[in-house]
Amino acid sequence: MSVGVEHYLVLSAILFVIGMFGALTKQNSVVILMCIELMLNAANIVLVAFSRFLVPGTVLIDGHVFVIFVMVVAAAEAAVGLAIIMALYRTRKTSDATEINLMKG
Amino acid sequence: MSYYLIAPQITVAGFAVAVIMLDLFVKQKRLLPIVSVVGLLGGLGASIALWGQTETGFTNVLSVDRLAIFFSVIFCGAAALVVLASRDYVRNNFSRFEGEYYALIMLSVVGMMFLAAARDLIAIYVSLELVGISLYILAAFGRDGKSSEAGLKYLLLGGVASAVLIYGMAVVFGITGQTSLAGIYQAVAAAGLGLDNGMLLLGVVFIIAGFGFKIASIPFQMWVPDVYEGAPTTVTAFLSVASKAAGFVVLIRIFLEAFGQDLAIVSGWAMIFAVLAVLSMTIGNVAAIVQTNIKRMLGYSSIAQAGYLMVGLAAVSKTIGAGVTDPEVLFGPTGLLFYIGCYGFANLGVFIAVIAISNKIKSDSIADYAGIGHRAPVIALAMSICLVSLIGLPPAAGFLAKFYLFNTAVHHGLTWLVVIAVLNTAISAYYYFRVVKVAWFGTSTSQEAVPSGWGLRFALGISVAGVLVLFFYPSGVLDIARSAAEAVSGIALSAP
């Protein structure tokens, strides 16, 4: 059995759903950030798989370029996210998303 | 390379760096807002100078068409007004980081201007994140726990939204093998795909979800009330106008340039926008009624306004399908552009008044606004005019904006949508007028006047003047909006 594009798509769909589920249900803010990274990487797998398989025999370079940009931006976003979690931890002594609830309504 | 095409972005980015440098080396901190305003006005001027430009540069990744310039002017103008109004607020709340505050506002404006010009999914994504990350930091800028909480909620939900957006873009890339909007248009047309294709539908829905977060549409609005309440008021003002406009310009561009092939596909996504419009305006308005915090109420009101704006995206089907044979039928996005201009002035006016009042009374509770009409008659009058404009009553610009938009929608056969929108306008009058009533007829505990700096007064004056001028002389701006909307519909209209 050879590995085709659909295997990659199924893998990425599974990763995306795991990431989405985690982002919506996890309590720790850092873990939610990790789940977001999982979702982004699921999208990266789709991009790379289609770059390789969409046109047989050639590689669409656009998809690879896209993946590099996504990785760089995700790193920047994670840096800002951790900084905000730090700032919040200093005032509230918690990084638990369910306890971050000063505002409601 | 045609670098003059990105002159506005270069100007604003250069001034942003200059502000950070000045903050490091100069003791006179009051220079910072002045330099920022000069930079933003420079960007605004450079944008206007590019009006009429049709060239696309940078291997077709950026196009400086009229749509991009129209929105660049909105972004620079809104940011300049916010900077003018924020001097006292910044000094009271985070004086240690003045330079970073102004620089981040300008950097997010740079991102928004690139976003308005981008015609490639990669460029759209990168500029969107430049906007997003700057705004996450700004939302967390205040010293209290509420502001950090707002920043964290904004970042986590924004991260999920952009992951969904990227997945949608990846799927669209997978179907077409293209990342440029023009390439996607041709590939979809060549393959004869429609929204009945499951993959394309998935891509389109995920892309709408990603930008629905930016424009604060239901069901991606969970962040709005908390972030609006928790973030510094100046940041909320900027967020509510510029960030929403940025979301709409990308939606207009992606859906008209990449998915405007034929009537079937257009009416498919137009129906998605129509349904989202109904949900946003209804839920936003009903939730706003019970709010006691004015920033939170304006948050829900901004969800409702996103609903009205999306009527403009729903009213496109007839124009594209018929290839504009009937000049009487307005193009939906034209009404949307005019509405964004009116909404921008009115919402900024309300927020600038809120900034002025909260500088004095240190509270955002609507009950504490009692008697503000006697303590600060000018500010209260300006706020009342802007609130009347948000409702959509004469003599304010909001009335004409709603009139044009709803009239367009009726011409496109969306009478049911307009009926719901008008009913919603009636609901919204209740909570907007409640603020006016409390401000003028409530009895206040204090008689102290509310002071305000010259920058804030000037910004408030411009907002009110904008609201009134757009009501009495709408034709000039309406023509500009029309030619801006037609710039982007050109591709779709010339198609068979």
DSSP, total strands of chain A:
0
SS elements, strand count of chain B? 2
Strand content range of chain A: under 5%
Helix tally of chain B?
Answer: 21
The number of distinct helices of chain A, counting runs of at least 4 residues, comes to: 3
Strand content of chain B: under 5%
Identify low-pLDDT runs of chain B: 320-328, 491-496
Task: Decide which structural class fits the backbone of chain A.
Answer: mainly alpha
Unreliable residue stretches of chain A: none
**Multimerization state:** heterodimer
CATH topology of chain A, which one? Answer: Helix Hairpins
Question: Which pair of protein chains has the largest interface, and what are the residue counts?
Answer: A-B, 43 and 44 residues
Order of helices and strands of chain B: HHEEHHHHHHHHHHHHHHHHHHH
- The coarse silhouette of chain A is elongated
Number of domains of chain A: 1
Structural class of chain B: mainly alpha
Spatial ordering of strands, largest sheet of chain B: 1-2
Would you write up a description of this structure?
The complex is a heterodimer of chains A (105) and B (496). Chain A is mostly helical. Chain A has a single domain, classed as Helix Hairpins. Chain A is built from 3 helices and no strands. Chain A has helices at 5-25, 29-53, 61-92. The longest helix of chain A is centred in the last third of the chain and has 32 residues, at 61-92. The relative contact order of chain A is 0.14. The mean pLDDT of chain A is 89. The model of chain B is unreliable at 320-328 and 491-496 (pLDDT under 50). A two-stranded antiparallel sheet of chain B has the order 1-2. Helices cover 77% and strands 1% of the residues of chain B. Chain B has 496 residues and is an all-alpha fold. Chain B has a domain at 262-496. At the A-B interface, helix 1, helix 2 and helix 3 of A face helix 6, helix 7 and helix 10 of B.
